[in-house]
Automatic annotation (TrEMBL):
InterPro entries: G_OBG, GTP-bd, GTP-bd_Obg/CgtA, GTP1_OBG_dom, GTP1_OBG_dom_sf, OBG_GTPase, P-loop_NTPase, Small_GTP-bd. Residues 13-148 form the Obg domain. This is GTP-binding protein 10. It comes from the Eukaryota. Residues 149-344 form the OBG-type G domain. One of its GO terms (cellular component) is nucleolus. One of its GO terms (biological process) is ribosome biogenesis. Keywords: GTP-binding, Nucleotide-binding, Nucleus, Ribosome biogenesis. It comes from Mustela putorius furo. GO terms for molecular function: GTP binding; GTPase activity; magnesium ion binding. Pfam families: GTP1_OBG, MMR_HSR1. The keyword Nucleotide-binding applies. Belongs to the TRAFAC class OBG-HflX-like GTPase superfamily. OBG GTPase family.
Amino acid sequence: MVHCSYVWFRKYGNFIDNLRLFTKGGSGGMGYPRLGGEGGKGGDVWVVAHNRMTLKQLKDKYPQKRFVAGEGANSRVNALKGSKGKDCEIPVPVGISVTDENGKIIGELNKEKDRILVAEGGLGGKLLTNFLPLKGQKRVIRLDLKLIADVGLVGFPNAGKSSLLSQVSHAKPAIADYAFTTLKPQLGKIMYDDFKQISVADLPGLIEGAHMNKGMGHKFLKHIERTKQLLFVVDISGFQLSSQTQYRTAFETIILLTKELELYKEELQTKPALLAVNKMDLPGAQDKYHVLMNQLQNPKDFLHLFEKNMIPERTMEFQHIIPISAITGEGIDELKNYIRKSLDEHANQEDDAYHKKQLLNLQISSTISYSEPPPKNY
């Protein structure tokens, strides 16, 4: 089997989240004019999802610049119909979005063995083509990895997301005490007593202006698209990126995070969301928590404190708000339970919607079949 490979990639540390590939379908085989024989079709190029694959492995394993699928066999006297050329398969991780050079989406690979045709082989020579074969399709494609996790952690740097991930799951993220702690996505799994597992992705801390591509934030906002629900993590004491930037309270942090998501893609605000208010072990945290709850219950009363361009079109509605301390473990069990409850509720709603759609389709098909006139007996 022929394999295609990359010509360009971008990476953060050791983590690669996209590759650009040159692909070309195989040329068709020659026809046989005297006997009307048809040449074989050229092989196709497919992108195929594999669970244990990464883009880094793809880059390391196939460092060639250009690959094409096999050519179709020529028509000949003892085989008038030429055989098809060998297909070329590109093994990629699950959770890949495939686009062409113009950014148009070709397709997505969301589960093991999903496959997308990216470059078609040329037709073999036949009467219609004057028995001359056609060339295969050439295409430069881009593979974008968007993490697939049940829950995506959303927060500014130092909100305690990495500490929280290590508390709730078996992940062991590197935790540092500076503004850009997480430079690549960390994945963890919450394990429950009945063996249920829920995957959690800690995405690098956003900063104000991330939608404009400042800092690492924007590069990873796309990963949030592929999580089922969001878990906002905010520091009860607020946040200040550096001595040069403005201090933000916990409420302001939530509003600004909401605005960043909205500016990147409005649909992100329609995802189910929970809020974990972290660092409740700090002095004065309880008083600040009461103030925050009042602000969240009546957000419109406080939006006048913001510059107009910082106010989101709609404020985030949290299904549950849980005070926690990732350091002491306070509230962690409640948070795990709420995460599961929220995901279960969301799954039930999706099931209900699916069943209603199926029922409607059945009703439509039965109406059509009953309205058709009975067949005539001749």
